[in-house]
Amino acid sequence: MQLTLNAPVLYSLELTPLCNNRCPGCFNVFIDDMATRPMHNVRPPLAAAQWDNILEKIQPHATRLKLTGGEPTLHPEFENIARSIAARGMTFTLFTNARWRNPARLVEFLRATPQCVGLLISLHGADAETHEAYSGVRGSFNETVDNIRRATTGGVNVATSTVMTQQNFSQLGAVIQLSAQLGADHAVINRYLGQPLPEIEPSEEELKRAVLDVDHLIQNGARAKFGNCVPQCFVENSSTGCLAGVAYCAISPWGEMRPCNHSPRIVGNLLNESVQAAWHSAEMDAWRGLMPDTCESSCAAFSKCHGACRALIEIRDEQRDPLRGAPIAFAPKPAARATLYEGLLPRAQCHLRQEEFGMVLMRGNKVVPLATQDVPVLMACDGAHTLRAIESEFGKRGLRVVVGLQQRGLIEFLEHAPFAA
Questions:
Q1: How far is the C-alpha of 377 from the C-alpha of 219, rounded, in Å?
Q2: Taking every pair of C-alpha atoms in the chain, what is the biggest distance, in angstroms?
Q3: 162 strand-pairing partners
Q4: pLDDT tens across 69-99, in order?
Q5: What is the structure's pLDDT at 237?
Q6: Considering only CA atoms, which of 117, 188, 107 is closest in space to residue 153?
Q7: What gap in Å lies between CA 39 and CA 45, rounded to an integer?
Q8: Is the dihedral of CA 97, 102, 108, 110 positive or negative?
Q9: 335: pLDDT strictly greater than 60
């Protein structure tokens, strides 16, 4: 059974529906006609003061915010909203196309805001032709590339975000390489999620090739990862399952809670109700129930990928994720055997949270359940206890817990104890 947190801890705040790109595969569900973009008919977004009221409600629960849109920097009070977030001590990432009105000012503002832990910048090709086939704006590639470089050289942490398309599926290695050359920490590769888009969506064979190519690059040291889930029944891969409706939600430009950015379903409005009321509403529970029973009950890979995309189930005419295949009846391949130096010092890089069903560990966008009996093992991962000491106290199970958490990026290994400040 997929466990649901008592309240979401990850939030996408969609500050505005406005955007200066024209991506045909945009997940902006607020625009009726994606071709003509009649933006003058769209309701004005919430003002900064109204967003502050929402921030007050989500602050007790949130561990990470993502500011998105549309293009979030086009909100007329973007800086005020970011300041409100920072004043509350909440961390955020900015998901942007990097086509900014005043690039120098924005980079300096973000650099001076320590609560901004990074930018996620759309980069859909390794050259102008490929990128602009998706962005829909001539000249946007050079502008985006210039501003990625401006941000990284200005001391702002950057990751790039790429949607796999017909146009770029064979050059994802070049995109990842360009991302690194521009100074980005890593590249995030995504499958397209939305209404059928034959002129953009890669074929199943093209997508399968792209996923395998990306995984091969990752295994050989490329700084890349998958941003959304590719079902394991489509092709075995390193992507992980979606947390929408489990630990994550989106808040629209008008305060409406939705299960995720790709879903048009409104489950409540935080202007006039609590986070818990919307999160536990009948509409949200119905959305959680969209997953086919066979995924959870019959598939050996469900714990990794959490099944197919629920948003696609509700927005596609066939009412299914087109990549979902037959349940995997055999156990996934065992993890590679780890060889570790007994003197390594594991140190936890996560927060522990109590839920009704037990404990969960959180770091960034990761939310991982932890058995109650394994909490003492986590507490011993303090940078002072060696692996030998942990094995002596907790046995082989303790070592397995430590290795599993390290592989998920929740524990780091130190070779020497850190110097006291």
A1: 29
A2: 67
A3: 189
A4: 999 999 999 999 999 999 999 999 999 999 9
A5: 94
A6: 107
A7: 12
A8: negative
A9: no
